[in-house]
Write a structure and sequence with these properties.
single chain; alpha/beta; Quinone Oxidoreductase, Chain A, domain 1; Rossmann fold; seven-stranded mixed sheet; six-stranded parallel sheet; 12 helices; about 30% helix; globular; binds zinc ion
Length: about 350
């Protein structure tokens, strides 16, 4: 079968390798769609790891072979892999709702990765992370259970309620997913980005206020919130300037949710005095729990979150690198179909 390997920064190679065998209790899927995630794009562009590997974790496919002892799934089922990493479900982290912090989490993965024609899943995947794709949902749309699950976790940790004023910084794929979700939760959504094109999409998807970032961003947000500031600011992109902006446009006692993964090592400064006296609450939201990805499939099949509208391209394994090279502000989600 074909698989696209990452060799180094912006260096990929399509190789022919043997179809993996699933371990006892597992299954083999023929990959139908794998989402090109922002985290994959960062790894492709900036990887510092010398490891030659196959990326791709937002995977949908069809079961073509399965351990006969598994009764929950059968050959022919269309499924989506919510997480390629699997928590143990019984350690202290798992029991306290932080499954992505589980020590087992990253030790289990799929073979070889989603940018391949076939992927082998373990018994743990089938037991905890594989979800049957609902009728009427395309394999491409189903790949969104992972990114959407991550957004749902951030929304949950931020304790967003109806009519809350929420600022979303960054109007890329994740930013747009936040807009769609928050609209359904009846929040008042503000979106900040440098791209006019992306902001236009955010309004189309339900943002009430779109602000092209400039020197007056904070003033604009304060103006629309009676001078108080937003209840929550979600950062889908982060640097020092953005962190300062978030602290200036959040209300006293409000939330700053750090959703952006660091691209390189970062140290950021906060105004300790302001942060303390204004009673701000800042936290990160990384990955998602299994119940959130299950819930994400329901949002997708209900069409209340229109993930199809975010798919701006489909490429084969041979053109994956080219797709990354040619990404523009007009690209939201690119789906890889082997
Ligand atoms: Zn992802
Ligand atoms: Zn655990």
């Amino acid at each position: 079968m074909k698989a696209t390997f990452l060799l180094g920064p912006m260096t990929m190679e399509v190789r022919s390798i043997s179809v993996p065998k699933h371990p006892p209790g597992g299954a083999l899927i023929k990959v139908l769609s794998t989402g090109l995630c922002g985290s994959d794009i960062n790894r492709i562009r900036y990887t510092t790891s010398g490891e030659v590997r196959v990326l791709g974790h937002e995977i949908s496919g069809e079961i073509v072979s399965i351990d006969p002892n598994v009764t929950d799934f059968q050959i022919g089922d269309r499924v989506s892999v919510g997480h390629v990493h699997i928590p143990c479900m019984h350690c202290e982290y798992c029991r306290h709702g932080a499954q992505a912090m589980c020590r087992q989490f990253k030790t289990i993965t799929v073979e070889p990765g989603g940018y391949a024609e076939y992927v082998a899943l373990t018994h743990d995947h089938l037991a905890h992370s594989v979800i049957r794709i609902s009728a009427g949902v395309s394999s491409a749309a189903a790949t969104f259970i992972d990114p959407l699950g991550c957004c749902m976790r951030a929304v949950r940790l931020s304790e967003i309620r109806a009519f809350d004023r929420v600022v979303v910084i960054g109007a890329g794929t994740m930013g747009q997913l936040f807009v769609m979700l928050l609209k359904e939760l009846h929040a008042e959504v503000f979106v900040v980005d440098i791209s006019k094109y992306r902001l236009e999409h955010a309004s189309k998807f339900g943002a009430q206020h779109t602000i092209q970032s400039d020197n007056n961003t904070v003033e604009s947000i304060l103006k629309f919130t009676n001078g108080k500031g937003a209840d929550t600011v979600i950062l889908s992109f982060l640097n020092q300037e953005i962190l300062d902006l978030a602290a200036d446009c959040v209300r006293e006692g409000g939330n700053i949710c750090i959703f952006a993964p660091p691209i390189q090592e970062h140290r950021l400064e906060i105004d300790y005095s302001k942060f303390f006296r204004r009673g701000l609450r800042m936290f990160s939201s990384y990955s998602s729990n299994l119940d959130e990805i299950e819930n994400a499939m329901m949002w997708i099949s209900s069409k209340k979150v229109n993930v199809e509208a975010l798919i701006t391209g489909t490429v084969g394994l041979d053109y994956l690198l080219e797709a990354v090279e040619n990404l523009t502000e007009k690209d939201f989600k690119v789906i890889v179909q082997p």
